[in-house]
Amino acid sequence: MSLDDKKDKLEHKTEELSGKAKEAAGRATDDERLEAEGKGDRATGSLKQAGDKLKDAFKR
């Protein structure tokens, strides 16, 4: 696995986790826009991680 692959995986996981944090902050402050943005970020990060796993499966 190359350094770029590891960097991409870390960025995708970070995006998912920051989405969870935004979502929780939106819920806590009753900010629907922030909560929705967090859900979107979380979903995007999860999809990118699924793509990473698929790439890894084809590399083997």
Distinctive features:
2 helices, 60 residues, mainly alpha
How do the strands and helices of this protein lay out in sequence?
Elements: H1 3-29, H2 32-59
Helix pairs in contact: 1-2
Report the total helices: 2
Proportion of β residues?
Answer: under 5%
Residue runs with pLDDT of under 50 for 5 or more positions: none
Q: What is the CA–CA distance across the termini?
A: 11 Å
H and E order: HH
Compute the average pLDDT.
93
Describe this structure in words.
- The protein is 92% helix and 0% strand.
- It is mainly α and 60 residues long.
- The model has no long low-confidence stretch (mean pLDDT 93).
Give a brief description.
The chain is an all-alpha fold. It is built from 2 helices and no strands.
